Predict the structure.
Amino acid sequence: MLAMNYDYNTQRKRMALPEYGRNVQKMVDHIKTIEDRTERNRAAKTIISIMGNLNPHLRDVGDFKHKLWDHLALIASFELDIDSPYPVPEPSKFIEKPKQVPYKQGDIRFLHYGRIIELMIDAAVEMNEGPEKEYLTTLIVNQMKKSYITWNRGQVADEVIIKDMKLLSKGKLLMTEGVRILEVRELIPPVKRKPLGKPHGKQQNKQFVKKKGHSRH
């Protein structure tokens, strides 16, 4: 039986604010590598929008936007060079444990993809065509495939993932030339098995045969 290696959170890079999810962390890590400052600023605003959608109950709070930009700085380990509308906070400000973000489940169409995938798709739809949109789309389809396989514990055709993404985006987010769906072995690496020692039973049998053969002479 084929053993599947699940991608446990304990084996991944530690997240500064786990309540925003692994995909937000990946997007923040990526925009730190964008060389063009204008593109970097635009990508940061997109992530702020996604983070805001994860906190709809806080939208009426006066300093809500300010908190989101502070959280973005923390997720980026204070290494994100952007034109923030607010001063970058001191790391000591985040000693207090952040409050957990409530996870809205009521209107999720596909539970195995989760709410964050729907928010990422909404953000990608609003982006202009180009490398950044292709990067986000690639991240989306591969996370969808990985979630599908993990949830259903089986294989899935790429066409199914593409169809679901088209459905969730209402036909507005499509595959382009720069988007590539990874193979299962790339998304979920195979289990590394430890080498087994030589069984004692076989050694004893060989010795027994040798002695038995010697006694005939």
In short: The CA atoms of residues 19 and 47 lie 14 Å apart. The chain has two domains: 15-102, 106-191. Residues 1-11 have pLDDT under 50 and may be disordered. The two ends are 48 Å apart (CA to CA).
